[in-house]
Amino acid sequence: MKPRIALIAHDKKKDDMITLAAEYLDFLRGCQLSATGTTGGRLANELGLTVDRKHSGPFGGDLQIGAQLVNGQIDAVIFLRDPMTPQPHEPDINALVRACDVHNIACATNLASAHLVLSQLMAAGGYEKTKKGA
Ligand SMILES: O=C(CO)COP(=O)(O)O
């Protein structure tokens, strides 16, 4: 089965998400992706990824991803949170991260852990990262 990955980034982390996804592009093309609205829009427009776009985070997108996760439809969450900016939907963010803990779903909330999760999922699927210039 294809890995089912949720990709979410707060505004100041969206460029990081695009750079991250570009690095794992071949692998992510073979995954089933969900994303909050604006993050998903950028992933689709800038990288051509096929993404199940939920509502934007402040309008319930985190909760929609949380519901998918609770229903057993998500294997890992990459959630690049902005720890320096207060978010109007902080309760929704906490609910999603809590749901990951309740259901023991890997949740990477920064780039370092995102690389670990993605490279591990890739290795488990027998993928190799394409080396630049190779
Ligand atoms: O706010 C978010 C996550 O909490 C992200 O939502 P967007 O991808 O719609 O910006």
TrEMBL record:
It catalyses: dihydroxyacetone phosphate = methylglyoxal + phosphate. The active site is at 62 (proton donor/acceptor). Residues 1-134 form the MGS-like domain. The keyword Lyase applies. Gene3D superfamilies: Methylglyoxal synthase-like domain. PROSITE patterns: MGS. Substrate binds at residues 10, 14, 36-39, 56-57, 89. GO terms for molecular function: methylglyoxal synthase activity. Its EC number is 4.2.3.3. It holds the Pfam family MGS. Keywords: Lyase. It comes from the Bacteria. SUPFAM superfamilies: Methylglyoxal synthase-like. Belongs to the methylglyoxal synthase family. Catalyzes the formation of methylglyoxal from dihydroxyacetone phosphate. This is Methylglyoxal synthase. The lineage of its organism: Bacteria, Pseudomonadati, Pseudomonadota, Betaproteobacteria, Burkholderiales. The gene is mgsA.
